[in-house]
Write a structure and sequence with these properties.
Elements: E1 14-18, H1 22-33, E2 37-42, E3 55-58, H2 64-73, E4 76-79, H3 86-93, H4 103-108, H5 111-120, E5 128-131, H6 134-144, E6 148-152, E7 162-165, H7 171-178, E8 183-187, E9 193-201, E10 207-209, E11 213-218, E12 221-227, H8 233-249, E13 254-263, E14 270-277, H9 287-290, H10 295-304, E15 316-323, H11 330-334, E16 339-343, E17 354-362
Parallel strand pairs: 1-2, 1-4, 2-3
Antiparallel strand pairs: 5-8, 6-7, 6-8, 9-10, 9-11, 9-13, 11-12, 12-15, 13-14, 15-17, 16-17
The structure holds adenosine monophosphate (AMP).
Residues 126, 149, 156, 159, 186, 188-189, 194, 217, 220, 259, 274-275 line the site of adenosine monophosphate.
């Protein structure tokens, strides 16, 4: 039995959360409902998650002494973002169970490792190639063709660290603009829609998937999620099966999100995996008000060693992100019938910053 399989929290126990953003905040709120405490570790004194927990550690991820004190205070450790430095996760996992296991981070922090892993399971992705120089990029374009998307292997999010390459592109300039030494080139996918599966896997290996979510982006940032996705049930089943296989292969404990493209084909639409997020995910926020259990509670249950819930959706759900100065409209949202408003308590409404979200549920007609 692994250390992780032995975690069995009791009400009153404490979960350590690495990262203090809105995901950490909503995890802590879900934990509180289940009688569990959270301590948040974040280097940012303005972390929105600090507002909802009694104990917080404000220190750098490389501060070993602070990490050791934090570990001593908590019973299990989890994270709300995937770019936790490997060294941080290693220091902590020597002292307390870190769930999901930090080896998952090694895969999801590197787009090349992630794509190799997914393909190794026999699950399709866009064609891709490793690129380490302008000459390498030229060679990859020769194999994969254009249009294509070049992405830094590490630290990309919300469209940052990537560029679309079209016919006639200046390859040297495109490579220089990326300011990296390691990237991948991906074939451009002419998708008909983007979907994601939020899956939870418990310590006993049980997997529960939420209904498939359809996602709409604006300027590379998620703007709307709709559940259920407008796809045939057979495809939805395949999407859930892909997420289940990924979670199982990673020996995952907690919630993960798998983003996929739905690609039109002669014999019907097919799926390509785009990305794995080893954490609760923005496209799962609809579950807070649109299902019998939220992604946050499922994650807490999983890492606590508690049984997972079987999620039941309450109707057709739309989640709208409030991005940047859209937050200024919150009083209007507060008066929209049926809307549930979530504000993250963040300070400056910088462009592109996720400030809150709204869920709207249309119950089925009785
Ligand atoms: P990512 O950071 O990989 O999740 O990419 C962000 C967004 O860029 C995706 O949600 C897609 O809308 C778009 N995108 C990424 N990769 C591709 C691709 N290979 N083909 C078409 N669109 C893509």
């Amino acid at each position: 039995m692994t250390a992780s399989a032995q975690v069995k929290l009791k009400p009153g126990d404490t979960i350590g959360i690495l990262g203090g953003g809105q995901l950490g905040r909503m995890l802590a709120l879900a934990a509180a409902r289940l009688g569990l405490r959270c301590q948040v570790f974040s280097p940012d004194p303005d972390s929105p998650a600090f507002d909802v927990v009694q104990y917080a550690t404000c220190a750098e991820y490389a501060d070993v002494e602070a990490l050791e004190l934090f570990a001593a205070d908590v019973d299990v450790i989890t994270y709300e973002f995937e770019n936790v430095p490997a060294a941080t996760a290693m220091v902590l996992s020597a002292r307390r169970p870190v769930l999901p296991n930090y080896k998952v981070l090694e895969i999801s922090q590197d787009r090349l490792a992630e794509k190799d892993f997914v393909n190794g399971l026999g699950i399709a992705t866009a064609p891709y190639a490793d690129v380490a120089s302008a000459a390498g990029l030229r060679a990859a374009i020769g194999t994969i063709g254009l249009p294509a998307v070049v992405k830094t292997r590490r630290f990309g999010y919300d469209g940052k660290g990537q560029a679309m390459l079209r016919e006639g592109i200046d390859v040297d300039a495109a490579w220089a603009d990326l300011e990296t030494k390691s990237a991948i080139l991906e074939g451009f996918v002419p998708f008909e829609r983007e979907i994601s599966v939020i899956a939870a896997r418990g310590a006993d290996g049980q997997v529960e998937c939420f209904d498939v979510t359809e996602n709409e982006h604006r300027d590379h940032i998620l703007k709307y999620s709709h559940a259920p996705a407008r796809i045939p049930e057979t495809l939805a089943e395949e999407a859930r099966s892909i997420a289940t296989r990924i979670a199982t292969a990673l020996d995952y404990i907690g919630v993960l999100a798998v983003e996929m493209f739905v690609v039109p084909g002669k014999t019907g639409p097919t799926l390509l995996v785009n990305e794995i997020a080893p954490r609760v995910h923005n496209s799962g926020h609809w579950t807070l008000d649109g299902a019998s259990v939220s992604q946050f509670e499922q994650h807490i249950r999983a890492i606590a060693g508690w049984p997972l819930a079987k999620p039941v959706r309450h109707g057709a759900v739309t989640m709208t992100n409030l991005i940047g100065d859209e937050i200024n409209d919150y009083t209007r949202w507060l008066t929209v019938p049926g809307a549930t408003v979530h504000l993250y308590g963040k300070g400056a409404a910088r462009p592109g910053r996720k400030m809150g979200h709204v869920t709207q549920v249309t119950p089925p007609k009785l």
